[in-house]
Structures are given as structure tokens and as C-alpha cells.
Amino acid sequence: MKTALVTGANQGIGFETARQLLRLGYFVYLGCRNRESAEQAMEKLRKEGLVTTDWVRLDVTDQKSVDDAAAHVAQRHPSVDVLINNAGIMGARPVAGEPYPVDEIRRVFETNVFGVIRVTQAFLPLLSRSDAPRVVNVTSGLGSLTRQSDPTWRYSHYKHPAYVSSKAALNAYTVVLSADLAPKGFKVNSVDPGHTTTAFNNYNKAGRNPEVSAAFVVKAAVLGADGPSGRFLSEEGPDGELPW
Ligand code: NAP
User: pTM (2 decimals)?
Assistant: First the structure.
């Protein structure tokens, strides 16, 4: 049975991604920050008969929690086949005319960028033992520098200093990581789930159903040997990709 870890799996796109990987027959670790939300998520899955799952306490900003999570999984599974770096935050709304606080940018980077790097490094030994390791960095179309430079783009007004720059930095990490790991059989991609109705945007009704977004994330998690690596996959772009 293949094994996956999804960070930020107690709700939203992460939860739906975990659910769909379970339906595909994976053993899925739900990375969650607290017991209560983890147990609620586990209960929902169990009620659907999805039982090949466990949760692991994982705050991506906390090195000890990440190391402990990797040790916990290593005691139970010889390898991890899929890592979904999904946990992410938006950061405080910019206030027009006011400088955006550097500390807030740092806080967002701590989750969206350093958190991803921290989790990936901690799980690399387990991923390296898989026959077909897959890393999915859940990014955003807002992190496309090309799109952000086009004033006619429909989201070009959305220039959140912390979120946009953190997802652009995450995309850079995807390129660097893929260059290192793709020759060893890994597939490492940035995946934009698209605008999705979740707690992230206060359940904005204009978004997609998380099940639809998660299906796109899962597609990148189960890529075959001929699949791409080091790409910015998105249903917003032509041929399923966005320009960096
Ligand atoms: P969500 O419903 O708010 O879920 C975010 C998840 O990340 C939650 O489980 C949250 O845990 C977890 N998380 C946040 N900080 C964490 C930390 N330090 N350590 C561990 N977990 C942490 O948001 P979502 O819409 O599903 O977003 C998932 C990903 O998709 C994010 O990376 C986001 O940037 C990306 N994305 C979303 C959209 C959209 O329109 N929704 C569009 C493009 C990209 P708690 O429940 O404990 O807070």
C-alpha cells in the first residue's frame, strides 16, 4: 500500500486531497496542528469507510513538530510515496497607503515557504525509499510573476505583498528541488488548486468546490514515470500550466 502525507489536512483542499488519496487506496497521514480538528477529520473519513489513515501532529513552522512527525511515520512505514505540501496562510490584508509589516511577511513565509522546505527536508529520507516519490507544492496562480506583470490579467489587482511573494518563492523552490531530485526519479511540481471555496477566503462562493480542486492536486500526486517535473500546473493556464 502506498503512503502519503498531507499537511494542513484537517480542512479545505488538504482534507479533500487526503480523502481522494484514501479512495485511491493510499495510507494517508493527515498532518494537523491540533488533536480536536484532526479527530473531527478522522471521524468524517471513518464514517465513509476510509480507515487506512492516521493523523500526525504537524505544525510546519515548528522544527521539532516536523521532526517528530517524520520520526512517527518512519516507525510505522518504511517509505513515503507522496508528500502534499498543502498547509498555507494568506496573511493580514494590506491597508491602502500603509507599508505592509515586515513581520507579517516573515510570518507568511514561515508557513508558505520555510514550512514547505522544513517538511520536505524532514521527509526526504522516507520519500527517497519510495519507487516513485512525488512532491506536490500547493501554490497559487497569484504567485505567477508573468501573470502578475500583465495588467489585463483578471487577478492583477490582487497584489498581496506577503502571499504573492511567498507563493512566487515557493515556485522557485519547486524548480530548484526538481532539478535536484527529478534525476533520482522524483516528480516535484507546483500545483495551483484554483480559486476554491474554503475557510481561506471565508468560504467565498465564487470559488470552486474543494473536491474539484483536490482532484487536480491528486493528479500531480499520482503522476506516472512519464509525467512532468519542475512545472507550474494549473487548470487556469493553457494546456494545464501557468508561466512562472
Ligand atoms: P484552509 O481551508 O484555510 O486550510 C489551510 C490548512 O493549512 C488548514 O488545515 C490549516 O490548519 C493549515 N495550516 C495553516 N498553517 C499551518 C501550520 N503552520 N502548520 C500546519 N498546518 C497549517 O485553506 P485552503 O483553501 O484549503 O488552502 C490550502 C492551500 O491551497 C494553501 O496553501 C493555499 O495557499 C492554497 N490555495 C488556496 C486557494 C483558495 O482559493 N482557497 C487558491 C489557491 C491556492 P488549521 O485548520 O489548524 O488552521
Answer: 0.98
Best of 15, 64, 196, 201 to mutate for ligand 1, by most ligand atoms within 8 A of CB? Answer: 196
Give the strand order in the sheet containing 27-32. 53-57, 27-32, 3-7, 82-85, 134-138, 187-192, 232-234
Catalytic pick from 163, 203, 205, 219? 163
pLDDT-based confidence at 87, cuts 50/70/90? very high
Q: Write the pLDDT tens digit of every residue in 22-35.
A: 999 999 999 999 99
CATH class of 3-240: alpha beta
**Tens of pLDDT along 92-110?**
999 999 999 999 999 999 9
Calculated CA dihedral for residues 49, 53, 59, 64, nearest 10 degrees: 160
Q: How many CB atoms lie within 10 A of CB 234?
A: 22
Q: How far is the CA of 25 from the centre of ligand 1 (A)?
A: 24
CA distance 144 to 154: 13
Kindly list the domain boundaries of the chain, sorted by start residue.
Answer: 3-240
